[in-house]
Amino acid sequence: MFSNQKSTWMGMALFFSAISIQAQTKLQLASFENNKGSWSEVGKVWADPLQSGHELLSEGKGSIILNTPTKKKPGVDIVSTEKFGDAEVTLVYMMAPGSNSGMYLQGQYEIQLLDSWTKTSVKAGDNGGIYERWDETKPDGQKGYQGYAPRLNASKAPGVWQTLNVKFKAPRFSASGEKIENARVMSATLNGVTIHEDVELFGPTRGAMAGGEVALGPIRIQGDHGAIAIQSLEVKPYQTPAPEFGEISYQVFPGSYRELPEVSTLKAFSTGKIASFDDFVAGLTETSLSKFEGKIAVKKAGNYTFRMMVPEGSGAIQIGTDGDVAQLREGMISAEKFLAEGEVPYVIWVSKPSDWTAQGFTLMASADGMWPQTYSTPAGADFWSTDPILVNASETPVLRSFIELPGRKKISHGISVSSTTGANYSYDLSSGQLLRVWRGGFLNATPMWDSRGNGVSQPIGIVTELSDGSPLLHNADYSAVSKEWQAKGYQILGDGAVRFLAKSKDGIEMKDQIKAKADGKGIDRMLELTGNSAAMLVRVAPGKTLTKVSDNMYLIEETGIFVVSADAPKAGAEGIYLPVTTSLTYSLLF
């Protein structure tokens, strides 16, 4: 029971973090000032991740912003002409190998942009880190302070587009100009992985623009350290204040209700007024129906969405006077409405039809350009959360479990393998398919072991899915080769290396050895087919577009993975393929 409730509340929180859609500003090179010559706009950018130089290659004309500083044209920082306060900033960028840059929010707080590929331990100065503040009066080694490292290294390889999303709350100032509240990074994700949550910024970081902290400030991109490309930079201002619930009147009616009765038939057990929903006490230990009503103060006209959930109960919400007739519903209940500025009446019903249910309910609101707001949480909400159960890779480097993949049936014969270099992968023993690769941590086994458990483990870090359920082998025309493999076990060779054994019904024996590369940049795969004479293709990854980076290296544009092979990969209708008859060796860099 409680395990299901826990996942429901977690899902609701995630939902609200993603639904806000604000008007946005897309910054182009013309949106910045101080371009002294190292910045340009190009059509395409790429890099060899294994090269030693800090170089990004480009061609054509287009909208990609590229910084290529040289001795003759040293790089400079560019500063947006527009200034921003509270905002969501989304940067899609590419680092050159070994390169260094940074994005300053309001020109004051640097989010580091760095080639941190393959690092297993990251600091504030690594990719996605909030850079340190600086005090020159302190001794060497102590000058930097209050920097925040990302939770884990979610960096992609140089030469691959990366996405940094930051939700930033600007500092607050009094009428006299005194700072009364510090700036905060409410959340930051790198390539879809959360790396910061609710970080208070006590002051400008090292290298901030002159003038100090401000209510409105520009976006500044560091250009004097190394090459960087920007595919897009979008800023979505948060300028809509949250509606406020004034004094709340309530009535409590005893009884178990799964539908709303005629109001005239109800007799109140208690009535009262409260300042917030969390102050409410039903005063009954048995079943009850509660009614809350009052007015919402709307500070800015716009479309608002109110959502509520009642643990092990049902509810109804009416906003305004022209809404539908209230009906009790279970699960997530929503009311979406355009609200004019001013006071708007509301009625909320909460039914607790079982005498053991927790008191209270969740009520949240969202709107265009507004920070999601929570007005009420149920009693005991912390009980439904649990500390994550993480697999310690040093103790359990290989784990058998169920594996869930997007849009696919659950894999029942899955195995996941870790390495000390941080390059991890999952494999399907029943099909011989390499399922996914990822970099970061190893596994979150909370779904597998918490409460009743469902047998599923989840990768921790930046994940690339490789299998969509199609067979391992294909004909020259990319049609599937129908073979049923029977797993014959596997041999653990150590530190990310496992040899998988299988045999088909027509007598072909397969040895499939996958190992993490010693330098942490990816995996090597060595596939042997004994008893086979037909030329076939192996589907190595999804994707449609290949860019040749060097003699034996190709970038799959859709996945951001590099394929290294003596044989040139082919892009077919369903993915990227390599030829095999008796053996195939290739590497994936990610």
Task: Describe how the helices and strands are arranged.
Layout lengths: L1 H17 L6 E2 L5 E2 L5 E8 L10 E11 L10 E7 L2 E9 L4 E6 L3 E6 L18 E2 L9 E2 L16 E8 L2 E2 L5 E3 L1 E8 L2 E9 L15 E5 L6 E10 L6 E2 L2 E7 L15 E5 L13 E11 L3 E8 L4 E6 L13 E7 L2 E11 L9 E6 L5 E4 L13 E2 L6 E6 L7 E7 L5 E6 L4 E12 L1 H4 L8 E8 L7 E2 L10 E8 L4 E8 L4 E8 L5 E9 L5 E6 L4 E5 L2 E4 L4 E4 L5 E3 L2 E6 L2 E7 L1
Antiparallel strand pairs: 1-17, 2-5, 3-4, 4-17, 5-16, 6-11, 6-17, 7-8, 7-16, 9-10, 11-14, 12-13, 14-15, 18-21, 19-20, 19-21, 21-25, 22-24, 22-26, 23-25, 26-27, 28-32, 29-30, 30-31, 31-32, 32-33, 34-39, 35-36, 36-37, 37-38, 38-45, 39-44, 40-41, 41-42, 42-45, 43-44
What can you see in these coordinates?
With 590 residues, the protein is mainly beta. It has 2 helices and 45 strands. The strands form 9 sheets. Strands 1, 3, 4, 6, 11, 14, 15 and 17 form an 8-stranded antiparallel sheet that branches. The chain has an 8-stranded antiparallel sheet with strand order 35-36-37-38-45-42-41-40, with no helix packed on it. The relative contact order is 0.11. Mean pLDDT is 92; it is low at 1-22.
